[in-house]
């Protein structure tokens, strides 16, 4: 299973529910395209819900970093929600845990944009 | 007679589609060897990173070049060697992904993950060209019957 991305909106905040793998090749490309489409449409308040992600490799971590930077450069914010433990471990090992804004509750993540 | 080491070899084309094939085999081997689920997960990832590097950076997706993977199941450790047929590189010259200036780089974390999840990671140039990455993970000794209390159990059984 590669990556399935479901988009929904809460006010002006867009939540992307990610389900599957973010790995070199297809998953990373899908994530890049999904965020790029949002930014092109001027929607730059983005939450990535990673609760359904079962596997991420270094390419996937790199993609999260790239989307974070791209969104920030576009004047927006990209935040992470529902990190599985193994993704948290990967972010910690690479000192990225403090770079991202990470939330465990969707409501808190959405309200953080207000 | 039990061999001291068993070897499993696999050769794939330089295509990302084959990485899952290698990691599936990795899972089968780590399960057979008796690694716990957590350790097996991270070995899987280390192998994935190394094979992806061989395809992407080593062979540069050249369809004429293969990636050779060799699993050596030893008594004390599992060793995995991944060979590409590229121009090679010096791992010492790679940027440190933990340097604050590099934290937001989109790439360059794979080798750090490999070093974190395996006990040893070594790089060597193959005499006939290409790079060989050899990673190893110590095996946890299987508990002896005494550790499991089976000795006492047998004793009790006799007593009963």
Would you give an account of this structure?
The complex is a heterodimer of chains A (114) and B (160). Chain A is globular. The longest helix of chain A is centred in the middle third of the chain and has 16 residues, at 58-73. Chain A is 40% helix and 32% strand. Chain A has a single domain, classed as 2-Layer Sandwich (Transcription Regulator spoIIAA), CATH 3.30.750. In chain A, strand 4 (77-81), helix 3 (85-93) and strand 5 form a beta-alpha-beta unit. Chain A is α/β, with parallel strands linked by helices. Chain B is of the alpha+beta class. In chain B, 34% of the residues lie in helices and 23% in strands. In chain B, strands 1-2-3-5-4 form a 5-stranded antiparallel sheet, with helices on one face. In chain B, a hairpin with a 3-residue loop joins strand 2 (66-73) and strand 3. Chain B starts with 5 loop residues before the first strand and ends with a helix. Residues 151-160 of chain B have low confidence and may be disordered. The interface between A and B is medium-sized, with 20 and 22 residues.
Task: List the defining traits of the structure above.
heterodimer; A: alpha/beta; Transcription Regulator spoIIAA; 4 helices; 32% strand; globular; B: 160 residues; alpha+beta; Heat Shock Protein 90
- The number of helices of chain B is 4
In spatial order, strands of the major sheet of chain B run 1-2-3-5-4
Tell me the CATH topology of chain B: Heat Shock Protein 90
Q: Which spans of chain A of ≥5 residues are poorly predicted at pLDDT below 50?
A: none
Can you give the helix content of chain B as a percent range? 25-40%
Physical arrangement of strands within the biggest beta sheet of chain A: 1-2-3-4-5
Which assembly state applies to the chains in this document? Answer: heterodimer
Helix content of chain A: 40-55%
Number of separate strands of chain A? 5
Largest interface, C-beta within 8 A: A-B, 20 and 22 residues
CATH-scheme architecture of chain B: 2-Layer Sandwich
- The CATH class label of chain A is Alpha Beta
What's the overall geometry of chain A?
globular
């Amino acid at each position: 299973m590669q990556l399935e991305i479901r988009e929904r909106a809460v006010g002006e905040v867009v939540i992307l529910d990610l389900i599957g793998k973010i790995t070199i090749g297809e998953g990373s490309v899908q994530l890049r395209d999904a965020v790029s489409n949002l930014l092109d449409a001027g929607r730059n308040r983005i939450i990535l819900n990673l609760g359904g992600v079962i596997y991420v490799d270094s390419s996937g971590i790199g993609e999260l970093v790239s989307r974070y930077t791209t969104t920030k450069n576009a004047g927006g914010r990209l935040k992470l929600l529902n990190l599985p433990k193994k993704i948290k471990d990967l972010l910690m090992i690479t000192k990225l845990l403090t770079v991202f804004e990470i939330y465990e509750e969707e409501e808190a993540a959405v309200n953080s944009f207000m | 007679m039990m061999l001291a080491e068993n070897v499993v070899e696999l050769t794939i084309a330089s295509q990302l589609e084959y990485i899952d094939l290698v990691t599936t085999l990795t899972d089968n081997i780590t399960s057979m060897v008796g690694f716990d689920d957590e350790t097996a997960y991270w070995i899987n990832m280390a192998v994935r990173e190394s094979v992806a590097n061989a395809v992407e950076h080593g062979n540069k997706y050249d369809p004429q070049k293969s990636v050779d993977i060799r699993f050596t199941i030893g008594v004390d450790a599992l060793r995995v060697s991944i060979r590409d047929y590229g121009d090679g590189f010096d791992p010492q010259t790679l940027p440190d992904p933990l340097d604050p200036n590099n934290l937001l780089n989109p790439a360059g974390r794979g080798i750090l993950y490999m070093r974190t999840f395996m006990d040893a990671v070594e790089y060597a140039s193959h005499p006939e060209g290409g790079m060989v990455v050899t990673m190893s993970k110590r095996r946890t000794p299987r508990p002896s019957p005494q550790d499991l209390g089976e000795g006492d159990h047998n004793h009790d059984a006799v007593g009963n």
